[in-house]
Amino acid sequence: MYNFVKPFIFKLSPEKAHALTIKALKSGMFPSCILPNVGEDPCLKTELLGLEFSNPIGLAAGFDKNAEAISGLLGMGFGFVEVGTVTPKPQIGNPSPRIFRHAETGSVINRMGFPNEGLTVFKANIQKFCAKNPHVKTPIGLNIGMNKDQTEPEEDYKALIKDLGPYADYITVNVSSPNTPGLRNLQNPEFLKPFLKTLIKEKKNLSNNPPLLIKLAPDLNEVEIQAISKVLLDVKIDGIILTNTTLDRPDLLPSEFSKEKGGLSGALLKDKSTQVISAFYKETQGNIPIIGVGGVSTAEDVIEKIKAGASLIQLYTGLIYHGPQLPSILCKNIAKILKANDCKSLSDLVGDDHKTSQEKSKRYQG
Ligand SMILES: Cc1cc2nc3c(=O)[nH]c(=O)nc-3n(C[C@H](O)[C@H](O)[C@H](O)COP(=O)(O)O)c2cc1C
């Protein structure tokens, strides 16, 4: 079905196509009948961060920036949905065009710059969703960021945690989008430690005390990964989301496309983000849960990231190229692979790349 409508969608600008998709999801008119039933295969169930996930495939941040289409997104079969990035004040982001596709390599470059309607609208949308769907168990993560003109980042993050935290199953502190000047500097370990301590204290004041995760860039070197891992272990962060988009421009890309400023996502980010997952898993000795994201479009991509150390997966660009059936197709194919390999649960494969063959053989016993 998506292959049929894709040529028409791709005739529109990426931002127009996205706006139409959000509109369709919001209106409830999205043709859920075309989506295969995900089912709830027990081998896909995951427990993490004190939450239950019916499957490990989540929607990455940036798709539903204003938390306005959650119901429609859940209908696509995601095991969890992350909305945002939201900033305290509304902001328009960078001038358009600011999203670019390169279909031949399954890539996207974006320099959105956090356009969003701000905390007040976001909060109203979340409240409306919660009121209408009191029985929905699918975890909803809230991704928070700072306004472009904020010189005291901590203030924005604290305000967002205080106001939105009560509605969050988990909160993601985004310090890795490349399109807000200075944002990635927040990853600097000297800044990061006191910053995260303050935010953790803030969320502990909330009665629901939601898990706090940090989302990091793929463009970190080995020394930076070591130093950041140490900080994350010290402050006892609940989880890490790896990774955001990259500033790299692989040689494969034509200059016409790669000259665009912004973050690259999709197939060409896949290996880099998997390497970063692996490096953080190694540095933290598997002691901090990781959500892996970057270039996922097949069940094999998912298993690769799980073996590198991720416990859950998110995707965004894959949806653009493979359509709304992608989460269900991935779930079906992961279950098939697990069964073919006599593996009872995807969770058993987390960090497999780092285990000895003796450790690996244990999972087949009993
Ligand atoms: C158009 C676009 C907008 C994005 N906006 C955000 C955002 O607001 N916050 C965020 O944390 N990540 C954002 N991302 C990054 C994605 O969440 C994800 O980390 C990245 O694209 C890699 O995954 P993918 O290859 O599956 O797209 C955005 C990505 C795209 C393509």
Please characterize this protein's 3D structure.
By secondary structure, the protein is of the alpha/beta class. It has a single domain, classed as Aldolase class I (TIM Barrel), CATH 3.20.20.70. Helix 7 crosses helix 9. It has an 8-stranded parallel barrel, surrounded by 6 helices. Helix 6 links the parallel strand 8 and strand 9. The chain is globular. Flavin mononucleotide (FMN) binds next to strand 6, strand 11 and helix 11.
Describe the structure concisely for a colleague.
The chain is α/β, with parallel strands linked by helices and 366 residues long.
Helix percentage range: 25-40%
CATH class: Alpha Beta
Please give the alpha-carbon distance between the first and last residues. Answer: 43 Å
CATH-level-2 architecture: Alpha-Beta Barrel
% residues in beta strands: 15-25%
